[in-house]
Specification:
The complex is a heterodimer of chains A (176) and B (169).
Chain A lengths: L1 H25 L11 H6 L2 E3 L5 E3 L7 E7 L4 H17 L4 E7 L3 H11 L5 E3 L1 H10 L9 E5 L5 E6 L4 H11 L1
Parallel strand pairs in A: 3-4, 4-5
Antiparallel strand pairs in A: 1-2, 3-6, 6-7
Chain B lengths: L3 H23 L8 H4 E9 L2 E8 L3 E4 L4 E5 L14 E5 L3 E6 L2 E7 L8 E8 L1 E3 L3 E2 L3 E8 L11 E2 L10
The chains are: A alpha/beta (176), B alpha+beta (169).
């Protein structure tokens, strides 16, 4: 019988180790949470659009705001944008608003915006906007970086790297 | 009662399953290197009129040929005429054909005239991305090299420190 208990003990220990390993491996490693006030900083930003008109982000407060930092020299950024265009078209009327902040010169941003039929504002950020993204949790200062702000003006999600359409739909669906 | 080897095998299966589930959940998060570790830049002088830049690219990262810029300080020692190795052509929907590098990039940088014994700062601008779908902005780095006497060299390679971003200049 001792032997049988030994086997059960081994099974229990293995299970516990597996569980601990699972918990440890699955623990979320979120991008550094934006400090309080980061949302206010973001909403306080005003940048020129592709026509040179200054656009304050605060004008979209009250909507679910998806702010996407991107550049034409960033292929993964360009690849995820058609899905944003589609979602803006389908759910804009529910109060969803995408805003792109381009780390690039206006001519290149405009060329790409026309190519994909961008249907949401593209603001011209330059490298200074990358510094802004850093204060929002983009510690590696890489692209694409996306910040989702809820209707109350709180940051609900930040994401470095591509935002998969189903994940984006799930997050946005809860906030709308 | 189960024979011991069978029970042990079952424990192992349980462990393996738990690990698979956990890893799948964890894989959602991107693990990324800071750019100076993803693209490790070092340089040396081959002789009194030739510099060499090396970029060691970590697995899963790549760099763009047309984003490299090399410059020397003092400017009177230049300009350098970089000799790039052949990269891999990649079709880019927006930019057309672009040349990318992986693993190791060795760029030869001949100076217009010999500068034996002089100290020259090699400035490099570079840009790359990770396969997981992230790109880094251009990095500006600098390495100070002491050129050897005529007929001597190469010097020991020197690793660059973390780069600056264009707006930090």
């Amino acid at each position: 019988m001792t032997r049988r208990w030994g086997q059960w003990l081994a099974l229990v220990v293995a299970g516990a180790v597996a569980l601990a390993a699972g918990v440890w491996l699955a623990r979320p490693v979120p991008p550094s949470p934006p400090p309080s006030g980061a949302a206010a900083t973001l909403l306080g930003v005003a940048l020129p659009d592709l026509n040179g008109r200054e656009q304050a982000l605060r004008q979209w407060q009250g909507k679910v705001l998806v702010v996407n930092f991107w550049a034409t020299w960033c292929a993964p950024c360009r690849e995820e944008m058609p899905a944003f265009v589609k979602m803006q078209r389908e759910r804009g009327s529910e109060g969803l608003q995408f805003v792109g902040i381009g780390i690039d010169d206006a001519a290149k941003l405009r060329q790409f915006a026309e190519e994909i039929g961008l249907n949401y504002p593209a603001l011209v950020g330059g490298y200074g906007a990358l510094e802004l993204s850093k204060t929002l949790g983009n510690t590696l200062v890489a692209l694409p970086f996306t910040v989702i702000v809820d209707r109350a003006g709180r940051i609900a999600h930040t994401q470095l790297g591509p935002l998969k359409p189903d994940k984006l739909a799930a997050i946005v669906g809860q906030l709308l | 009662m189960l024979p011991a080897p069978y029970a042990a095998a079952r424990s192992l299966v349980a462990l393996a399953l738990a690990l698979v589930v956990a890893t799948a959940a964890g894989a959602q998060e991107l693990k990324l290197l800071p750019p100076e570790q993803a693209f490790r830049f070092s340089a040396r002088a081959l002789d009194d009129r030739t510099l060499e830049a090396r970029f060691n690219v970590a697995d899963g990262y790549y760099m763009y040929r047309d984003k490299f810029r090399f410059d020397v300080d003092p400017a009177t020692a230049g300009p350098v005429a970089p000799q790039f190795p052949a990269g891999k052509m990649k079709d880019d929907e927006f930019f057309g054909k672009v040349e990318v590098y992986r693993d190791l990039i060795v760029v030869k940088l001949p100076l217009p005239k010999a500068a034996a014994g002089r100290t020259i700062a090699l400035k490099a601008e570079s840009q790359g991305c990770a396969d997981v779908g992230v790109c880094y902005p251009p990095q500006l780095q600098q390495i100070r090299l002491e050129l050897p006497a005529a007929g001597k060299g190469p010097t020991a390679p020197i690793e660059a420190n973390a780069g600056k971003l264009p707006w930090q200049q």
